[in-house]
Amino acid sequence: MSDIPRLTISIDPAACCAMGRCAATAPEVFDQDPDTGTVVLLDATPPPELHAPARLCAELCPCEAITVTEG
Amino acid sequence: MNETAPLAEESAPVYPMPRVSPVDPPPPLAELRAGKAASRVTLWDGSQVWLVTSHAGVKAVLGDRRFTAVTSAPGFPMLTRISQLVRAKPASASFIRMDDPEHSRLRSMLTRDFLARRAEALRPAVRELLDEMLAKLVTGERPVDLVAGLAIPVPSRVITLLFGAGDDRREFIESRSAILVDRGYTPDQVAAARDELDGYLRELVEERLADPGDDLISRLVLDQVRPGKLSIDEMVPMCRLLLVAGHGTTTSQAGLGLLSLITDPGLTEALAEDPGLMPKMVEELLRFHSIVQNGLARAATEDVELDDVVIRAGEGVVLSLSAANRDEQIFPDPDRLDPHRDARRHFAFGHGMHQCLGQWLARVELEEIYAAVLRWMPGARLAIPFEELEFRHEVSSYGLGSLPVTW
Fold first, then answer.
1. Which segments carry the region annotation Disordered (chain B) (predicted)?
2. Which residue, B294, B300, B329, is CA-closest to B64?
3. Which of B86, B177, B302, B373 shows a CA-CA span of 20 to 30 A to B251?
4. How far is B363 from chain A (nearest CA, A)?
């Protein structure tokens, strides 16, 4: 089991500027509040096939509201 | 510290530099990108500021709250004479020229209306509008100017749709919004156009206060103005920002994107093979053309280390979005327009808390404009030699004066 890569995602809704890049890039992992647009984390430990899109979300986030940690 | 001689020193070249190719950023930007994290450049008024040209550098500065977007801040770069006007009348500034918390307080009032899903909901109306306009264009005389025929009216009709504004005022709105971003006008002419627009918007807001409907202005009036969260004096520049930002930018990007699509057979072939490629193509065209040609301005409010350079408090910084979008560290073979490239890291919409609020709407408009032209004018081609095309260098969003095509 230990050789399966793990990724843990955390969000900072206070930093979120509601642009929705994450929800558009990895809709399996992120959603947006329908009124405020604030990020909603759907899956904090997504399966390996979603690791690359999740990392891209952290990079695309204009307000650095997404943190991705390996393991 | 910006009281330097108006003559550019060798170490601080004049910015912006002239283009060599009309669809590529000025070549010296690539040289600067290979050097230090920031370099000194001289602006039109003789002041010297820092210029950042790398993807990493632009991202770092735009994401760093120690850099202010307030034009009256010490050292803030005056990219044009018009920026001086904004500085002279700061009370009329919109939230694009504010820092948090004021910026977020105002911007968040608009978030709901510009969510991706709201833009998506507008897609059928945009498509219908385009079909209606193109049906007329294709039965008329050839060549057709796609700038005057589509690139200008489509964004304008979409904004008036959002505002619930009457079609009768569209020409007024279009012409005054265009003056605000055109360096060909004097600061006085720009101020006059701005005052006229503000007067119109004030009337519109007061109209909706008395008789609200189902549109963006009415929602702001009902949710924000009436409960006392937003004053009319704050709302007018906010609405002006939406008008100006929604007009010229989409027009420029639509025109340049169409130019690429009709002159690069590789792009249309790729789309014919896979029509689902359009969103990716739109991102790549945004990256490639980077219409906010002179970049974004900020000023440091404290000393900031940017890799191998220290930017001191009170010094100005210009972020070249077009140079960052051609950074080979992120986009291999950056000067090539590649329909299969994943260009999502581009900064055509900026980065940080000021990243373009209307970006999803812009994407919907661009996708629909490009697709509609390919649908209605199969085999569209330039009706004049490429060398005769008129590029607008003097506007803050770079674009075409006209795009005559035949098919």
1. 1-20
2. B300
3. B86
4. 12
pLDDT digits (tens, 9 = 90+) for B144-179: 999 999 999 999 899 989 998 877 888 888 888 888
| Residues of chain A contacting residue B112, judged by C-beta atoms under 8 Å apart | 35-37
* DSSP designation for B97: G
> A64 vs B112: CB contact, 8 Å cut-off?
no
Contact A25 B355 (CB under 8 A): no
Q: How far apart are CA B149 and CA B88, in angstroms?
A: 36
CA distance B184 to B393: 10
Q: Please, which pLDDT band fits residue A50 given cuts at 50, 70 and 90? A: very high
Where in the sequence is the domain holding A48, given as residue range(s)? 7-70
Residue A1 lies in a domain: no
pLDDT at A29 over 70: yes
The pLDDT score that the predictor gives to residue B6 is 46
**Minimal Cα–Cα distance from A43 to chain B, Å?**
21
For residue B120, give the chain A residue with the closest CA. Answer: A24
Read off the DSSP letter of residue B185.
S
Q: What is the ipTM of this complex?
A: 0.94
Using the beta-carbon criterion (under 8 Å), do B63 and A64 form an inter-chain contact?
Answer: yes
Q: Are residues A34 and B117, on separate chains, in Cβ contact within 8 Å?
A: yes
What's the confidence (pLDDT) of residue B182? 75
Task: State how many domains chain A has.
Answer: 1
Nearest chain A residue (CA) to B64: A63
User: Residue A66 falls within a domain, yes or no?
Assistant: yes
Single out the residue of B181, B156, B180, B190 nearest to residue B170, CA to CA. B156
Residues of chain A with C-beta less than 8 angstroms from the C-beta of B352: 62-63
Whether residue A2 lies inside any domain: the answer is no
A20 vs B62, B108, B116: nearest CB? B116
**DSSP string spanning B51-82?**
EE-SHHHHHHHHT-TTEE--TTSTT----SHH
User: DSSP letter string over A7-33?
Assistant: EEEEE-TTT-----HHHHH-TTTEEE-
Strand ranges in B61-138 using DSSP code E only, listed in sequence order: 67-68
Residue range B266-305, pLDDT digits in tens = 999 999 999 999 999 999 999 999 999 999 999 999 999 9
Q: What part of A 7-36 touches B (C-beta under 8 Å)?
A: 17-20, 23-25, 32, 34-36
At the topology level, CATH places domain B28-406 in Cytochrome p450 (1.10.630)
Q: What is the pLDDT of residue B91?
A: 52
Residue B12 has pLDDT above 80, yes or no: yes
A32 inside domain: yes
